[in-house]
Amino acid sequence: MLWAQTVQSLSGVSRQWVGVLARMGIHTVWDLIHYFPLYHEDRAQLPSIRSVAIDVPLDTPVSVWGTMTAIEHGDAVSRVQVSDATGQVGALWFRQPHVRRLFRSGQRVYVSGKLQWDDRHGMRVIHVSDYELVTGHTPTGLTPMYALVKGMNQRKLRQIITTSFPVISEQEYLPQGHVQAYMRWAEAVKAMHFPKQLTDYHQARDRLAFDEWLWFQVATQYQKRQKQAVQISEPLRASGRLFRDYCNRLPYTLTGAQQRVIASIQADIQRDFPMNRLVQGDVGCGKTDVAVAALLMAVESGKKGVLMAPTDVLATQHYVKLSQLLAPIGVSVVCLKGALSAQARRETLAQLAQDTPLIVVGTQALVQASVVMQQVGLIVVDEQHRFGVLQRLALQDKGHMPHALYMTATPIPRSLVLTLYRDLDRSVIDEKPPNRQDCETVYVHTRNAQKVLDYCARNAAVGRQVYVVYPVIEESESHDLKAATAEYQRLCDTVFASVRVGLLHGRLSVNEKQAIMAAFKSGDLDVLISTTVIEVGVDVPNASIMVIYHAERFGLSSLHQLRGRVGRGSDAATCFLVANPKTPSAKQRIQAMVDTSDGFEIAQRDLTIRGGGDVLGTRQSGISALFRLADMQHDDPIREDASRVADAILVEDPALTSDRYAGLKQRLEYQFDALLYNQLN
Questions:
Q1: Residue 19 DSSP one-character state
Q2: Domain tally, the chain
Q3: What residues contact residue 544 under an 8 Å CB cut-off, 6+ apart?
């Protein structure tokens, strides 16, 4: 197998070259053939020497064909005059004494390097970084150019890769009926390195991208089927009476989208394998009511429903709201979070350890080893993008295969990718309640921040409430960020001197946080200066202006969540992003926020910027090593082909035991050996 065959087994690869290849991450033939070029240089279209000597700007990388017409070797520099029919240019080799015995006048050569000015001779010269003495084997068309390390050169790497081709010749691991629309696998590998024309390269890329999508589709679907076969959940049977009683106490009616999602959840939990559903909807679309519906289904079935929130503030808000709404219909609600007295914690843990059906609200304190819960029928993870993968899995371990519901306004890339691969079922709440306002998002450079603050002060003076958000609590020598505490003092003394201002951050006690939020919500405060502690779960309808300082330091998910705190009342909302973005990714994040307020579009942008994560593992971002070629944004037709083939394969051979799919099985075992929950064996 190619992933078990070392590169040293190839002809002409000495121990010295094995060491150099290892530094490039190449250990096996599989590694070697998948070390794809950075780009292909079209040597048939190289510029003339005259154009290089006259038209091309200095400090530009150039490549030319020519003939050596004058050779001069010094102690540290070899100087060669390279000519063609249009002119001549100097070429310099630095500290390469071996070229003395290679160069001959009249020899044809390919030269590549940066164009510089030679003061001594008053002419342009090429500082050579790569060259080839022309032979019958020298590539003259599309030529692969690779990333290198010290000790390796393009010519040698191309030679080594070419040596591997007889090993993979004619290898095709899929039945022809599945790939008839694509180039054969071995041909595609060769064309990725040495295409005869660009169309060959694009066809090769499509075939190998198809392979990557197929491997992942088969692996995730196999994994999902295996889990469903061995993970038996107790179906939840609920008539919906409790939820109808809950809805009767609400001052509004549910949207059609909410009712549709609730129906999907009810169908899921009646099956005998765990629900694994993501509910995505923009801030303010009513995800909490959907979560309550699911939790009440668990209670009505004699089980516990568990709701995990990312912060004490949000957990407390859920607990207070649910207690008020559910107590009259006879449903008990308890809360477990970090900020509990020892006695309150003991009493809560005792309730969790009993078989009594109730709703449990908490923070990540729920996943601690000391927390024992009996009869957990369903878990809901609110704002799931705030939790790590392992935290979510740890919560699932608290019950015996409980049904799981994940809720978010902006899926992290990992969740979006899992949705693409059908490992998570997905529901979208695509309707907003009629009282929700659109929010205009404005990018403001840091140097113009004072104008924004003056605007906020004028609006606060006439009754419009304002959030001002900073990324850190206190100033520090380790960063140059404006901090909430210092800015609170400065702004109270200056621009906000005539309005009422509060300060909220994570180091305050729970009681202090609740008191400040209650004052802001009741209108006793005009401006709230805060950190991201207000990112989720804060609902103040009169707040219509938000200012986010150092917005380039925030992720898209956080920016979108923060923006969702305004526009909940009758006034038009505005969100100012005060920033000085310098990196490409920071500029992309700011632009995405200005361009759209749609949470799903934000997630797509986040996927492009950050990558899809290790979707079978635990990393939340960064392009998975599996996807060398697959494009998560633009490969829809290829991904759909792969999905269709994956389904056909698993219908035909669910366990992949036939010889027909032996090659596919081997590749899956290699790619997912450390990640699949169930080995393909």
A1: H
A2: 4
A3: 437, 459, 464, 465, 566, 567, 569, 571, 572, 573, 574
